[in-house]
Amino acid sequence: MRLDKLLSNMGYGSRKEVKQLLKQKAVTVDGIHVKDAAMHVDPDKQDVSVYDERVIYTEFVYFMMNKPPGVISATEDAREATVIDLLEPLHQHFEPFPVGRLDKDTEGLLLLTNDGTLAHNLLSPKKHVPKVYYAEIEGVVTEADGEAFARGVELDDGYVTKPGKLVILKSADQSEIELTIQEGKFHQVKRMFEAVGKRVTYLKRLSMGNLKLDESLDLGEYRELTEEELVALQNRQ
């Protein structure tokens, strides 16, 4: 890989800015100052450093975010704040995107990555990746609702959902539930409850596959996946 491309990809600036670093003798390869932007290097075998700090080459990034309400699951939008706006500039540089989407007012687990293969495998209907949601419901949720979800319910557009697993945590005028589904249709959880005559007032995603929300993350915070989390996600495919 060209040296200027490597450094640009790793967030050290544009090609022009990287050339300035080279002129300033800020860049070394295997301990030797270099000025040739077109020099080819192997970041896995050679020590590339900027101001004596080694450049660790990364092709893919994987972030777990506790998505707050009020932002949309998109890479850019002319009017609305997006989840990408919550990332640090260095992390934005890798051009990650949300894997699937959470509605604007929905909170919880959101995976962001630039690994298209992993994203495709997590979202593919053929993979049957389960997603678990916690929700608060206006109306008394009953075992009959659970039986309906287990069969699949017909949404307002005529689509019949795949079976879902409903766990009732509290059954009252304001009920609390956990729902596991394997699809991600538009507003699906809300529309499933509308199909049985109830309304979702609060929705939070707890997990996707075997990736569970880190509850220590405040709303709007994010972190890189651990190696164990990433391996578990990749092995889930």
- Percent range of helical residues: 10-25%
* Major beta-sheet overview: 9 strands, mixed
Uncertain runs with pLDDT below 50, 5 residues or more? none
Count every beta strand, where a strand is a DSSP E run of 2 or more residues.
Answer: 13
Q: Beta fraction of the residues?
A: 25-35%
SSE succession: HHEEEEEHEEHEHEEHEEEH
**Mean pLDDT reading:** 94
By secondary-structure content and strand pairing, the structural class works out as alpha+beta
- Number of DSSP helical runs: 7
Give the CA-based shape. Answer: elongated
Through-space gap between termini:
30 Å
Rg, Å, rounded: 23 Å
What does this structure look like?
23% of the residues lie in helices and 26% in strands. By secondary structure, it is an alpha+beta fold. The chain has helices at 3-9, 15-23, 89-92, 116-123, 143-151, 188-195, 227-236, and strands at 27-29, 32-33, 48-50, 53-54, 62-67, 97-98, 107-113, 131-138, 165-170, 174-181, 199-208, 211-212, 222-224. Strands 5, 6, 7, 8, 9, 10, 11, 12 and 13 form a 9-stranded mixed sheet that branches. Strands 2-1-3-4 form a 4-stranded antiparallel sheet, with no helix packed on it.
Characteristics:
four-stranded antiparallel beta sheet, 237 residues, single chain, nine-stranded mixed beta sheet, 7 helices, elongated, alpha+beta
Q: What's this model, at a glance?
A:
With 237 residues, the chain is α+β, with helices and mostly antiparallel strands. The protein is built from 7 helices and 13 strands.
In terms of topology, how is this protein built?
Elements: H1 3-9, H2 15-23, E1 27-29, E2 32-33, E3 48-50, E4 53-54, E5 62-67, H3 89-92, E6 97-98, E7 107-113, H4 116-123, E8 131-138, H5 143-151, E9 165-170, E10 174-181, H6 188-195, E11 199-208, E12 211-212, E13 222-224, H7 227-236
Parallel strand pairs: 7-11
Antiparallel strand pairs: 1-2, 1-3, 3-4, 5-7, 5-13, 6-7, 8-10, 8-11, 9-10, 11-12
